[in-house]
Amino acid sequence: MLNVVAKQLRSHPALIPLFVFIGGGATMSVLYLCRLALKNPECSWDRTNNPEPWNKLGPNHQYKWEKTGAPGGNPHRKDPGYLAGGLTPGSSCYEVFQILHVAGAYLLLFTAIHCYSPTACYESEEEIRESEVEIQESEVEKRESEEEIQESEEEIRESEEEIRVSEVEKRESEVEKRESEVEKRESEVEKRESEVEKRESEVEKRESEEEIRESEEEIRESEEEIRESEEEIRESEVEIRESEEEIWESEEEIRESEEEIQKSEEEIQESEEEIRESEEEIRESEVEIRESEEEIRESEEEIRESEVEIRESEEEIRESEEEIRESEVEIRESEVEIRESEKEIWESEVEIQEFEEEIQKGESF
After folding, report:
1. Quick check: helix, strand or coil at residue 79?
2. C-alpha distance from residue 95 to each of 15, 28, 41, 64, 121 (Å)
3. DSSP string of 214-275?
4. Is residue 65 very low, low, confident or very high in pLDDT (cuts 50, 70, 90)?
């Protein structure tokens, strides 16, 4: 607004006296009102200590602009000079007031003549149009500034919301960190439990291996007995007709060997069931280890500060996985050996059946 007024004053210097006199009159009126408010006893500023200041005036108290009357006289006499505020003819204030009045009248005439000239009118119209254009531009600028202020307020609100959201996320991240720490501890406990289970499974594996070895030894013994029986059967083929009693004895021995083979088969089946149970336990431990790995990976994404610990835990888990894989390989090898032993047992049973058929054929002869 001040920039617009300054531009108009530069383009219209005839308006300068108008602004000067209007400003001077406004300042004089404001100063006069301030003096009345501060000096006039009819104004009460302290209601508690001085509620009625007009009752505390002395006989010679002066609150007007200029003192009138004889010294020591009554200031409350009916005097037109006193009622006029001290502006009596011949006084200094009265002369100053007349000079200002005359100067103001001449300046007003000068400004009126200058403003009402035809060139000034045309110029004033053009200047008014230019001022209107400038006012419109200023209004547009104001609107743009208001829109920018609104946009900035919206951005500030969005930033405050983002700050609040970030604070909420920080709090959630802290809660997640605490939960992750709790999960880490739980995972450590689960790891320890899994290690205990691994050790138990290893013990069970060793026991199963010992049982398998014992079963293999029994199978070998049975194979040796089968071989001996085969030799005896071969000898009995030569002496079938002569020694039927020996054949019956050999048949009893064969039945006993079959019972022993069946017992060994049952033991092998039991060992297989135990191995399967141990495999299931190992698979469960693998599932638990995979779950713990997933939890550790999630905690790695959420907590960057604990990457070193998580990497160490991952290395331990990988070592445990390698151990589990090695144990699986050993179990598979043991399964392969057991299957081979089963095949051999089946072959021995087939040979025994063939031998029984041959014996039956010999008996029929």
Report:
1. coil
2. 28, 17, 28, 18, 37
3. HHHHHHHHHHHHHHHHHHHHHHHHHTTTT-HHHHHHHHHHHHHHHHHHHHHHHHHHHHHHHH
4. low
